[in-house]
């Protein structure tokens, strides 16, 4: 099981490295206090057409361990200085809202990463942190 975890961590780090190259297109890193999150989904308090998700793929059909929603809410409350880091974005995700989008994001507070914590502790399958397919 350890090799799988190491491989997952390497994939996540490569995705993060790749995301820095895309930052100009994705938008700025923002404070978690600017968002309202419910479970794995969130949006800036000032613009609900910009959806954010802690999972990269399979977010509507993903299995999750019991207590994941509570853990996410508690983590956010305990980490008010956390930053929301965009990884990739899919544009025009809402009918009638051309500027809408869905952004796969990481939530990080110094050395702690909520996404990695959720995977390592079995709340979500590791494959759900793969980057979204962009069109």
Supply database-style keywords.
single chain, 135 residues, alpha+beta, seven-stranded mixed sheet, 3 helices, 32% helix
What does this structure look like?
With about 140 residues, the protein is of the alpha+beta class. About 30% of the residues lie in helices and about 25% in strands. It has helices at about 1-25, 70-80, 115-120; strands spanning about 30, 35-40, 40-45, 50-55, 85-90, 100-110, 110-115. Strands 1, 2, 3, 4, 5, 6 and 7 form a 7-stranded mixed sheet that branches. The protein is globular, with a radius of gyration of 14 Å.
Count of alpha/pi helices: 3
Helix content: 25-40%
Largest sheet, described in full? Answer: 7 strands, mixed
The end-to-end span amounts to 34 Å
SSE order in H/E notation?
HEEEEHEEEH
Low-confidence stretches: 17-25
Number of strands: 7
Helix/strand/pairing category? alpha+beta
Task: Tell me the Rg in angstroms.
Answer: 14 Å
The residue-averaged pLDDT reads 75
Outline of the structure:
By secondary structure, the chain is of the alpha+beta class. It is built from 3 helices and 7 strands. A hairpin with a 2-residue loop joins strand 2 and strand 3.
What order do the helices and strands come in, and which of them pair?
Elements: H1 2-26, E1 30-31, E2 35-38, E3 41-44, E4 50-53, H2 68-78, E5 83-91, E6 101-109, E7 112-113, H3 114-120
């Amino acid at each position: 099981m350890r090799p799988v975890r190491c491989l997952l961590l390497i994939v996540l780090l490569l995705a993060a490295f790749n995301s820095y190259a895309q930052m100009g297109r994705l938008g700025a890193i923002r404070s978690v206090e600017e968002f309202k999150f419910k479970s794995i989904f969130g949006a800036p308090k000032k613009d609900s057409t910009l959806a954010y998700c802690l999972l990269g793929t399979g977010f509507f059909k993903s299995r999750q361990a019991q207590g994941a929603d509570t853990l996410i809410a508690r983590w956010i409350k305990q980490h008010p200085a956390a930053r929301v880091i965009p990884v990739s974005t899919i544009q025009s995700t809402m009918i009638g809202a051309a500027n809408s989008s869905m952004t796969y994001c990481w939530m990080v507070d110094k050395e702690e990463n909520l996404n990695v914590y959720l995977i390592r502790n079995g709340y979500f399958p590791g494959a759900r942190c793969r980057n979204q397919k962009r069109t």
